[in-house]
């Protein structure tokens, strides 16, 4: 197993009280596999990814516990210096909005070359050659021209391709992609997903694909973890999630995906909203929104049940 997250809890301080953002998350990521983490905003998916990267703001954390084992080392226990080496070399991350990661004042080529100079001690000429090679690898035409451009001169899709190229420059074992296509229009989104799929196969990099959109997942993920209010409520192979969703929340997410055969006024939405993370009770966190809720659902958070490798936390399967 490349990455094993065990019982991860992340709580933040706030003026309203303790925000329980991640409440005992278990996720396993195998080598060479794309695993999606799917959830609405506030589900804890981005906090989980920032915890893997060691990028959470220390001053705002009330508690962080559990294990994040990467290649046999618990990242939560590593000193910052060792973590910094892993981050950028072995684990890379791309975000929704590339402009937050690219410096608008510096040419794309300069920023790409810096990665090679810093991580691999390359001289400027070799770093430029490697950068152009990477730009070509992410299927951008006229690579030299793009190398000499400023980020604002490129389209959103091209900027995201550049971010992917930079993230893959160090040939990481794990790439964390946090909503990487959300800001792109549908056609460009498909192209970027297809590119990520191809690159994963070429480089054998494992990918954690974080998204609120289960529809996107079907194009890219081998395995799916559904997160709700800081807990994984269902995890299984992507084909099993789509063919036979077990948790009422996952079923709701699937029903809510628009498709060509549905009229707009028939679009389903899950009633209610996510519970307040300051006020989470020891019960199924979905019970106020669930049409199948029973008395037992309010007695404690349901234990995970394993049905032939398809795992679900719901009293319907006790
Ligand atoms: Fe619904 Fe109960 Fe299952 Fe929660 S445990 S999803 S409330 S049936």
Automatic annotation (TrEMBL):
It is found in: Cell membrane. PROSITE patterns: ABC_TRANSPORTER_1, ABC_TRANSPORTER_2. The keyword Magnesium does not apply. Residues 5-254 form the ABC transporter domain. CDD domains: ABC_NikE_OppD_transporters (cd03257). Keywords: ATP-binding, Cell membrane, Membrane, Nucleotide-binding, Transport. It holds the Pfam family ABC_tran. It is a peripheral membrane protein. NCBIfam families: oligo_HPY. Belongs to the ABC transporter superfamily. This is ABC transporter ATP-binding protein.
